[in-house]
Design brief:
About 35% of the residues lie in helices and about 20% in strands. The chain has helices at about 30-35, 55-65, 75-85, 90-100, 105-115, 120-135, 210-220, 225-245, 260-270, 310-315, 370-380, 385-395, 405-425, 430-435, 450-465, 480-490, and strands at about 140-150, 160-165, 175-190, 195-205, 250-255, 275-280, 285, 305, 320-325, 330-340, 345-355, 360-365. Strands 1, 2, 3, 4, 5, 6, 7, 8, 9, 10, 11 and 12 form a twelve-stranded mixed beta sheet that branches. A hairpin with a 5-residue loop joins strand 11 (about 345-355) and strand 12 (about 360-365). The N and C termini lie far apart (about 60 Å). Mean pLDDT is about 85; it is low at about 10-15.
């Protein structure tokens, strides 16, 4: 066996004295404090975007700006315009460049901090937009989805970042990642033509307990588990509806990771209904037997212990149902019954679903009177929030902004999610032909539904096209110039 070569270099001995910090020879010329102390009369302030927002999107952003500090609010529309037009790597600086920010770019970084601090107030404005568009009416049901998603970040100076477990690493990923982890709340809206769309409302940053002391000293941060953060989001949503005097039935659909007692207790206390995946080895019990006359002692809470695997293996009791699942109609065999669980102090509705290959999966609902169809549709609709996370990262570039301040990170993440929601609402009633431009892509499927990238591209084209009517073309070749302008729009978007 070959012996390992010993290193020739002698390891450096650690000194008992603290290492001296590097001292700069001269202060940086980019120091913000020095710039603010010295007035610069030649500094050009940015008061409007190079290509301002138009239409309903401009109106919505103006209402969102009303929830911010008056000194910063006008910058929100400029930032959003830059987000729509930025291409390639969507850093915060690329937003500002696309928006036409001048010498006061540092004020726009401050605006990101302000947006992060006021994210709760702005989220209420976004929720108002969704309510005005999709309110089911008194007594109607609203279906929410809660899930957490990783956001990879780099650099030890990024506040709130840490090592988290990645449940979906992919082929090139690992079991763990360094960055942020966001617990998000989204409204699951059913579009009449395009299926279920997740409209994000608000997110909370999950910081590991070991990383909290570093934030606590600077930002006054307190630790909360992901279950507690998810419960806070539901409480915020329900409290907001109550403050608006809106009585609605709220369903919350989650994956199996949130089927835990701390989360369920808090959500059930708010009067909401929870639908979730059920572990195959979950501890379930039959309903307690009825008490006999004269029976002494406390009433039993649980009946005999039951096994999901045995229930699924038994050939009797299976029925067939057809329901929409991820845009297609599927037919599955199911079995349902009531049971007791340590997850909740009440009977739950359990639904077992059997697939064609013999495999099975279990779901539960905290409303024992819920129908099997409603439970299975809610469980299938939860996938829309996964598609939302993909679009926010791949299309809007969430996680690429390269900001360090924790409030800036919160502001950037929410801006990406809010813009996703606003674009979906703005294109809700538009025809598919107006949302997809396939002139430059003749190979594209003409029957394909417009993607979120198509809808975002349409919003960007409207902003750029609004600048052309201001230019008067009096030459005989006006149509040629307009056609050239449309070609340039295609290239820009």
């Amino acid at each position: 066996m070959a012996q390992r070569k010993k290193p020739r270099r002698r390891p450096q001995q650690q000194s008992a004295l603290p290492r001296p910090r590097h001292q700069k020879s001269q202060p940086s010329r980019h120091d913000k404090r020095r710039r603010l102390e010295q007035a610069n009369p030649d500094r050009r302030p940015t008061t409007r975007a190079r290509f301002p927002l138009v239409g309903g999107l401009a109106t919505a952003v103006a209402k969102m700006a009303g929830a911010l500090d008056a000194r910063m609010s006008f910058r929100l529309a400029i930032i959003v315009a830059g987000m729509l037009l930025a291409d390639d790597r969507r850093t915060a600086s690329s937003w500002f460049v696309a928006a036409g920010v001048h010498d006061d770019w540092d004020r726009f970084y401050d605006a990101l901090i302000s947006i992060g601090r006021q994210s709760r107030d702005v989220s209420e404005v976004v929720l108002r937009f969704v309510i005005e568009k999709l309110d089911p009416g008194p007594g109607g049901r609203i279906t929410l989805a809660i899930d957490d998603t990783p956001e990879k970040r780099y650099g030890r100076h990024v506040e709130g970042a840490g090592v988290h477990h990645d449940p979906t690493p992919g082929p090139a990923g690992g079991e763990f990642f360094y960055g942020h982890n966001w617990v998000s709340l989204a409204w699951l809206a059913k579009h009449p033509r395009w299926g279920v769309i997740a409209l994000s409302l608000r997110s909370l940053l999950s910081v590991r307990q070991v990383d909290v002391p570093r934030l606590d000293a600077k930002r006054g941060w307190t630790f909360a588990t992901k279950h507690q953060l998810a419960a806070q989001l539901v409480s915020w949503f329900v409290a907001t509806l109550r403050s608006w005097k809106l009585e609605r039935v709220v369903w919350v659909v989650v994956d199996g990771a949130y089927a835990a007692r701390p989360f369920l207790d808090a959500v059930l206390a708010e009067g909401a209904v929870v639908v979730s995946r059920l572990r195959k080895d979950a501890a379930l019990f039959d309903l307690p037997p009825a008490r006999t006359p004269g029976q002494r002692g406390r009433p039993r809470k649980y009946g005999a212990k039951l096994s999901l695997a045995k229930r699924a293996a038994h050939p009797d009791g299976w029925q067939s149902i057809t329901y929409p699942c991820r845009g297609v109609e599927v037919t599955r065999e199911f079995k349902t019954f009531l049971a007791m669980s340590h997850l909740a102090d009440q009977p739950i509705r359990v639904v077992l679903v059997r697939f064609d290959d013999g495999g099975w999966v279990g779901y539960f609902c905290t409303d024992p009177n819920a129908t099997v169809r409603d439970i299975l549709e809610a469980a299938a609709d939860r996938w829309a929030i996964e598609e939302h996370f993909h679009d926010v990262k791949e299309i809007w570039g969430a996680g690429q902004q390269q900001v360090r301040n924790v409030w800036s990170n919160i502001g950037c993440w929410h801006l990406n999610q809010w813009l996703h929601t606003l674009v979906e609402l703005a294109s809700w009633d538009e025809a598919a032909a107006t949302l997809v431009n396939r002139t430059a892509r003749p190979w594209d499927n003409a029957n394909r539904r417009p993607s979120h990238a198509d809808r975002r591209r349409t919003m960007a084209r409207e902003i750029l096209r609004a600048e052309f009517p201001a230019t008067r073309l009096t030459t005989p070749e006006t149509q040629k110039y307009l056609a050239l302008a449309e070609s340039l729009l295609d290239l820009c978007t």
